[in-house]
Design brief:
The protein is α+β, with helices and mostly antiparallel strands. A hairpin with a 1-residue loop joins strand 20 (395-396) and strand 21. It has helices at 26-39, 64-69, 100-103, 106-120, 175-189, 201-204, 248-258, 306-312, 405-411; strands spanning 4-5, 47-50, 53-56, 60-61, 81-82, 93-98, 127-130, 138-145, 150-151, 163-167, 218-219, 281-286, 296-297, 299-301, 321-331, 338-339, 342-343, 350-358, 380-385, 395-396, 398-400, 420-430, 437-438, 441-442, 449-456. It has three domains: 1-262, Collagenase (Catalytic Domain), CATH 3.40.390.10; 266-358, LCCL-like domain (Ferric Hydroxamate Uptake Protein, Chain A, domain 1); 365-456, Ferric Hydroxamate Uptake Protein, Chain A, domain 1, CATH 2.170.130. It has nine helices and 25 strands. 45% of the residues are buried. Strands 7-6-8-10-9 form a five-stranded mixed beta sheet. The protein has a five-stranded antiparallel beta sheet with strand order 12-15-18-14-13, with helices on one face.
Length: 457
């Protein structure tokens, strides 16, 4: 006769991978087997633990390997479903508070930062923040569980579900996978169902219909009614190749439920969390010139005040605007300078960088009268040059402010005759200007002149 063991399992919101390392204890093994079975579609009341083994149908012993094989993903569009309940409009800032144990796992901890940034980059009507912090209108605890999966719950009473559980086995996976899993679990807390809830074999390789589960499975308008592997962060199961990035239908679904139609405030994003994701671009908005510290020129440390850096690099005026931040590798040194009323600092080696550009194409350089900027030394302006066919220029590297900017830019080696975007920095007048020939452009010498500029990329 089998000695039955009572085993309580929270509803797993899945993301279980079939090739994780084996847990070290019998309890860890059984917990992962049960999680895998739930993910594969077996009802909880059909699972039991007896004599240290996990059974389904009372007499079918399921080994750890067999349970993992049930979760192998296969290739088969993206859809999004929500629960009946959503987070109410009274919730504006959700604070995710990791436990002390959670913070001892570096990949989990960094993954949490990236997941929070994932949501904040979408400019939703609610923001996420890592706690402890102030101003929270709702709180979620991030804690650990055994295995390589995760679990959470759905909103109730207008509040997000209060806990996400993240498997410690994920600490051996990539940062992108951790970002994916935590983003997924937070998605459940604000009301997202699995995108393949009706047929979990799509992403898991096996498993059936989760059904309504008493919380609803409502198709979100604008998203297709089918699902594919990799089609959504909210797929039931994940792969080891996940990037942790939203798909197009994820973005549609987020915007439908919680969007404002805008972009996130740059101040709400933690760009340090994007280290290593070189080339990743994030749009965000600045209400004006930031007041924080900035290190570098054109390439800045990733802990710099982005809005102040954006004004410094001439991506936006001091009145603000929308910028495109690009994640860059760390540099061995950063050089400070003064531009546009912003003084940046120099620094040595730092592990992460960013550059900033305007999301609006710069105006044609011919539309500017640079002589009108005399005395505004250090002011920098970005403008674009079409194909360069000629123009009169006085000076070398430092040019008179009535010189043809695009011709000067070719002379300085900043662009080719095919044109491009340049940065013009206003300089003081000089006592004399020396002409030269470079890059097919011959400039002229001149005496004293009241205003100058330099040209850089």
């Amino acid at each position: 006769m089998l000695k039955k063991t009572v085993f309580l399992v929270a509803a797993c919101s899945a993301l279980l991978l079939g090739c994780g390392g084996a847990p070290e204890t019998e309890q860890d093994v059984n917990e992962e087997v049960i999680s895998n079975l739930l993910e594969a579609g077996f009802p909880l009341n059909d699972i039991m633990v007896a004599d240290g083994n996990v059974y389904v149908g009372r007499d079918a012993h399921i080994t750890l390997q067999a349970s993992r094989e049930m979760l192998q993903a296969n290739e088969t569009s993206e859809e999004q479903y929500r629960t009946t309940n959503q987070v109410g409009t009274g919730v504006t800032k959700i604070c995710v508070n990791p436990t002390a144990d959670f913070n001892t796992y570096p990949m989990l901890s960094q993954g949490l930062d990236l997941a929070i940034a994932n949501y904040n980059a979408r400019a939703l009507r609610l923001t996420f923040a890592r706690g402890p912090t102030t101003g929270c209108t709702a709180n979620i605890t991030a804690q650990t569980m055994a295995g390589t999966g995760g679990s959470a719950g759905f909103p109730s009473g207008g509040l997000p579900y209060g806990v996400i559980n993240i498997g410690t086995g994920l600490n051996t996976y990539s940062l992108n996978v951790n970002k994916h899993v935590i983003t997924h679990e937070l998605g459940h807390t604000i009301g997202f169902r699995h995108s393949d809830y009706y047929n979990r074999s799509i992403s898991c390789g096996s498993g059936g219909d989760e059904g309504d589960s008493g919380v609803g499975a409502i198709l979100i308008p604008g998203t297709p009614a089918t699902a594919v592997v990799g089609g959504s962060i909210m797929n039931s199961c994940f792969r080891s190749t996940e990037t942790g990035e939203w798909t197009s239908t994820d973005i549609t679904a987020l915007g439908y439920l919680y969007g404002t139609g805008g972009v996130a405030a740059c101040s709400s994003l933690n760009f340090v969390a994007y280290r290593g994701q070189n080339g990743t671009q994030i749009s965000c908005s600045c209400p004006g010139a930031g007041s924080g510290s900035v290190w570098g020129t054109d390439t800045y440390t990733d802990d710099s005040d982005v809005c102040a850096a954006a004004v410094h690099t001439a991506a936006i005026p001091s009145s603000g605007g929308t910028v495109l931040v690009t994640i860059r590798p760390g540099q061995s040194s950063y050089t400070g300078s003064t531009r546009n009323g912003i003084t940046t600092l120099s620094y040595g080696a730092w592990n992460g960088s960013l550059s900033i550009a305007s999301v609006t194409p710069p105006a044609n350089c011919t539309s500017y009268d640079f002589t009108s900027y005399r005395g505004q030394n250090g002011t920098a302006l970005r403008c674009s040059c079409p194909t360069v066919s000629g123009g009169t220029v006085w000076g070398t590297d430092t040019y008179t402010d009535d010189s043809s900017v695009c011709a000067a830019a070719v002379h300085a080696g900043v662009i080719s005759t095919g044109g491009g975007v340049v940065l013009i920095t206003i300089r003081p007048g000089q006592g004399s200007y020396t002409g030269s020939t470079r890059n097919g452009i011959t400039t002229l010498s001149y005496g004293a002149w009241s205003g100058s500029y330099s040209v850089s990329p």
